[in-house]
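Dock magnesium ion; give full complex structure.
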Amino acid sequence: MYQLSNSIIILDGLGPKTQQRLNTIGIFNLEHLLFQLPTRYQDKTKLAKLNQVRVGDEVLIQLTIKYTEQVSTHKKQLLCYLSDSNHQNLLLRFFYFNQYQKQNFVRGDIIQCFGKIKMGQNSLEIHHPEYRLISKGQANLLEKTLSPIYPLTANIRQTQMKKWIDIALEVLQQSDLSDNFKNLTNNAMPTLKQALNTLHHPKVYDNIKQIANFKHLSQQRLIIDELCAQRLNLLKFKRKRKSKTSNIFKIKNNLIQKALNTLKFKLTKAQQRCINDINSDLSSNHPMLRLLQGDIGSGKTVIVIFACLQAIENGFQTTIITPTEILTAQYLQEFSNYLTPLGIGIAFLTDSQSAIQRSKQLEKINSDTVRIIIGTHVLIQTQVIFDKLGLVIINEQHTFGVHQYLSLVQKSHNTPHQLIITTTPIPKSLTISVYADLDYSIIDELPPGRTPTNTIVLGNEKKNKVIEKIKQVCNTGNQVYWICTLIEESEVLRTESATNTHNYLKKNLEELTVVLIHGRMHKHKKSNIIAKFFKGKIDVLVATSEIETGMNIINTSLMVIENSERLGLTQLHQLRSRVGRNLDASICILMYQAPLSYNAIARLDILRKTNDGFKIALKDLELRGPNEILGTHQIGITNMKIANIVRDRYLLKQVQSYSKQFLKLDKNKQHILITRWITDYNNPYDNI
Ligand code: ADP
Ligand code: MG
């Protein structure tokens, strides 16, 4: 018999390739499979009656085959006509099929099928149902419990995922799952085992609506578990760090004064306060572990620069780790703007560098010529040897877990000071509890003179107007960013549709430089285009949405977002924030394809009305339909599996008190809890 701690590689039909894919979504052993929860359920617990079904229902139904027919319109289709005992009809429609399948549909036979009811021309229809030929002795589709549908991540098929998770569930029935909450909650909640069983295979009487809203006791049980693990992890981290000594930076004003002289603006009070907080950490002998939080555009960069300057004054290097290459490029640009006038050199590391480029940069990093090093995770992974690392800055950007960069610490001189930057628009009270009371500074004031981006919502039929606007904007020397957000399944299709848009714009904007950038391009080509755009040599940049991550283009005063009705609020807010950084009033045009759903109207409307990241984040939660988001995370502090700190904020008080109690439990139990949820956790505490 298997153990929950067994690697997933022992499962039938699961090879090294699949193993690797599952590893990337945090599944290493059978226990991890248990925490891969369904996104929704199908009800195959009863047979529906044809005269009672409604369009849109997903039903299991048993009928008699009348006849089949093969038709060819532009493509071949197989039609199979069914009827019930009252001679009411249902049509099964197959767009792809084989002859064997066709021959198997025999007049008079009983068939069971499951699928979504659609309205056809002459009768109700189901397209590509799951079906069983009952007369031929095929097994019944009826189930005792609701059937889980798992998120299809990592290119795994539904049937495979289901099979493997079912095995894990079987193992679970005979295993002991460490469950510290049993004691902590006095049995007020289901055990972990019960909770998992319920969520994978709810009974018909279980409250599915509650599950869809993440309010089911079984979910609360898991959410608390996960949030406790996250918090415990941070608390341990913080505790350990507090016991370390770091390099004391003497606060000096020499470089700072020079930098201030080159600034074209005055620091806001909020910025000054954050700088003071950081300076006081840097000058103490305990390593700084501070969170700097501010909405996009609130002016975090200059604060970071000032921290770097203190490191330099004291002879130390600073490294800035960003989640994407594009952000690295952007930081490099921004930092050069600030630091080149001061004669400070910067090194950078990215995945797309050639071997020669990389070794050149590595050499610099290991020498005393460079004090600032910017890069992606490569900074952690490669054999980077710093000359004298004293300050580590992490740009969290919603995805980066605090534990991931700990290996960097080994590369540094004493325990380095650390600053985590986040744009996550969550309220202060949440920040404190989620980040486990890490020291934090919040920029609660935007730089003055910011004109909020004027947001316009336009239907696709008004494309002409947009073209006119683009001409206007470019005539005044500004740039335009056009985002294609087609959520096509394949990158090929996305590229194709972006290419079409690009051609359309080129044709209609002959006098302007219109350039396309997309995910399938070679990395070098991409960075070239971005560099050109930064330099103002491109008027209109057409980009597929996977490119967007973190571009900050000062000179862009018009952003057009295609198919905006298909994007989430937070995503739209982030995209929009990339404009509106210069003094000219900026415009964001949200284009949509009519008709809009009620929900889409509300989404676009809130964007029209406010630029406030926090308001938008809350509205986002409010608007998302329960079925739409089961299992996904709008705002993840780290990559959480089930919990969502904004949605689940009502549980945080409990989490705080439980994790405090956990801290008193033995280390092994803590380790079990943490590794259950933080699967790329690699017991880093021994290293710091
Ligand atoms: P964030 O990193 O928080 O998204 P940035 O640091 O990139 O924001 O700042 C956004 C823009 O605001 C930049 O163009 C920057 O030069 C400008 N800026 C920053 N601080 C101020 C200030 N105090 N007054 C005016 N402009 C500022
Ligand atoms: Mg910035």
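Observed: Residues 300-301, 552 surround magnesium ion (ligand 2) (CB under 6 Å).
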